[in-house]
Amino acid sequence: MPPELRADQDPGSSALVGVAPAPEGAPGEDSRSGPLRRGAAVVLPALVALVVVGVVWQLLATHNRYLLPRPAATWSQLAHHPGLFASDARTTLVEALLGLGIGFVAAVVLAVLMSQVRVVQRAVMPLAVVLNVTPVVAVAPAMVVAFGFGRTPKVIVTSIIVFFPALINALTGLRSSDPRVLDVMATLHASRRETLWRVQLPSALPNLFAAARVCLPLSVIGAVVAEFVAPGSSAGLGTLITQASSNNQLDRVYAAIICLAAMGVALTLVIAALERWLLAWSRHARSDR
Amino acid sequence: MVGMTPDAGQRSEDVGISLVGVSKAFGRGDRRTAALCDIDLDIAPGSFVSVIGPSGCGKSTLLRLVAGLLTPDSGTIRVLDTSPLQACRDKLIGLVPQSPALLPWRSVLDNVRLPFQVNRAGGRRSSAHRVEGATLDPAEVLAAVGLGEALEKRPAELSGGMQQRVAVARAFAFGAPVLLMDEPFSALDELTRESVRHRLLDLWQAHRKTVLFVTHSVAEAVALSDRVIVMSSRPGRIIADITIGIARPRGPAVELSEEFHDAETQVRLALRKGWADAA
Ligand SMILES: Nc1ncnc2c1ncn2[C@@H]1O[C@H](COP(=O)(O)OP(=O)(O)O)[C@@H](O)[C@H]1O
Ligand SMILES: [Mg+2]
Questions:
Q1: CATH number, domain at B37?
Q2: pLDDT tens readout for residues B123-168
Q3: What is the total count of domains within chain B?
Q4: Global pTM exceeds 0.90
Q5: Torsion angle of C-alpha atoms A45, A50, A54, A56, degrees rounded to 10
Q6: Nearest CB to A180 within list B99, B155, B156
Q7: What residues of B are in contact with residue A195 (Cβ under 8 Å)?
Q8: How far is A255 from chain B (nearest CA, A)?
């Protein structure tokens, strides 16, 4: 196990809020306390907060059952219909990941083109900004009209939502190469492609991961919103939420929301793990400065 | 120069780096600043020449012109009897910038290998020039600059001095016969500077290359160079060309000698004269 994956560094919470973990040996790491005590110190506050939320939830739910379902009822929804939630979650996950993949790759490819060819940058940037300020939610119904109730409109909405933050981050990353390294490459007469692959893209990796951390939750939002506006569709957690709320099944709505949250957490952890593995050099470099 | 005949003046063996009437200005209109004005400079192949002067006098500009990173407004620049751009194409130039400029995701060894991996065709062409500067083994060069133990480390794990030595090794190993160094040691503390300087001197004495070395340290210039070019600012021009006659090979002891101090004084006086003229 590489040192950067040590369990006692609290990979979960810092990764979830997108904050770079403290470099090794940073102040705050108390050498007197063992890993167990440190683990407890990290887990305990979160656990307490969770219990408080649970208690408040329970109190609110017993007082007004139209405001919130009781936690137990929500839990029993999940426990009694695991297949339903699993299959809807899979549908939404596939839509989100496809949309994320397509939007992200398109953004990176375009960012590379923009960084290489000035004209492309001038042509694309205004369009991208317009796309960014357009509320994509408003585009979703039109996508349903155009592409029907299947997977396509959801994937399109998701990739549009993901596109702009990915593009901006990728551009920033591609521009972040050390100009002195570029000088060295120029005196070696390295081709554009060599410079791109050996310098610019690796330099852009930290920004690409930052983009991924922003885009992941966005992709789930995109998929769910697209499901909302396609009432005839038959699957997905968003559809499940629409149907359950029109039947006043609050417990089912919240069960679906919990599934979405769990999905978001799982995806974020995957990205965080990838980042730790691929960007060990970057964290070294950062702690050095 | 040994064996030079009058009609052999244009053969590549006799031209290291040459600048004739080179001028360079930045900006336009009111903002136009002349960085370099009418520079003539001839550097024999295999010699070590330092350029020294106050900051802003155009030292970096001079170096970037020779490296083909800038083009002169007027005048001609030749590097081993070709244009700077052709020299880059043929991989004749090793650049050591002011910061180490290493790739942080590569190990020390892989950083030194980088020049071998890009523009491979250029490497083959450069051997056709048959100039001093066969390719060297990256690991051996790193060992020669005292980094034999650090081959697999990442740059961030090294001190500033070690990083700068990696940058020197990177420019040295791939066989470029011309080295251009822009204040490579200016970010280091005095003691580190001195030890890195001695490593460079050893390396260069083992593998003679044509070196253009920009510095603002008088001691560094004198310790390393065959000639010290003194520049004044606004616009940058050459005000003195001082030959350093100290015998080679030079070791650390040289820096304590009378001869060394005399040369230092000579350079200092030339620098002061530059200030006095500017004031
Ligand atoms: N890219 C540039 N654009 C505009 N002015 C520049 C540029 N590069 C250098 N200069 C100007 O040219 C002069 C010489 O700069 P430089 O060669 O960097 O000096 P030195 O390396 O001796 O400190 C300075 O006045 C600087 O402001
Ligand atoms: Mg400079």
A1: 3.40.50.300
A2: 776 665 555 557 888 898 898 888 888 899 999 999 888 999 999 9
A3: 1
A4: no
A5: 50
A6: B99
A7: 118
A8: 44
Distance, in Å, from the CA atom of A60 to the CA atom of A77, rounded to the nearest integer, reads 19
Total structural domains in chain A? 2
B70 CB less than 6 Å from ligand 1?
no
Q: Which residues pair with B50 in a beta bridge?
A: B213, B228
Dihedral of CA A20/A24/A28/A30: which sign? positive
Ligand 1 pocket mutation pick from B33, B37, B215 by most atoms within 8 angstroms of CB: B33
Mean pLDDT across A240-261: 89
Nearest-neighbour CA in chain A from B223: distance (Å): 26
Tell me the H-state helices in chain A: 11-16, 35-63, 71-80, 82-116, 118-133, 136-147, 152-175, 179-187, 192-195, 201-228, 237-246, 250-278, 280-288
Inter-chain CB proximity A284 and B114 less than 8 Å: no
ipTM for the assembly: 0.89
Least confident of A22-26, B37-41, B158-162, B260-264: A22-26
Choose the weakest-confidence range: A64-68, A196-200, B58-62. Answer: A64-68
Domain containing B250: what range?
Answer: 12-98+177-278
**Within-domain flag for B235:** yes
* B33-43, strands of its sheet edge to edge: B33-43, B17-26, B74-79
Backbone angles phi, psi at B20, to 5 degrees: -125, 115
State pLDDT tens for residues A128-187: 888 888 887 788 888 888 888 788 888 998 999 999 999 999 999 999 999 999 999 999
User: Which ligand 1 atom is nearest residue B231's CA?
Assistant: 22
Nearest CA to ligand 1 atom 9: B61
Where residue A105 sits, what CATH number does that domain have? 1.10.3720.10
Same domain, A46 and A36: yes
Distance B56 CA to ligand 2 centre (A): 7
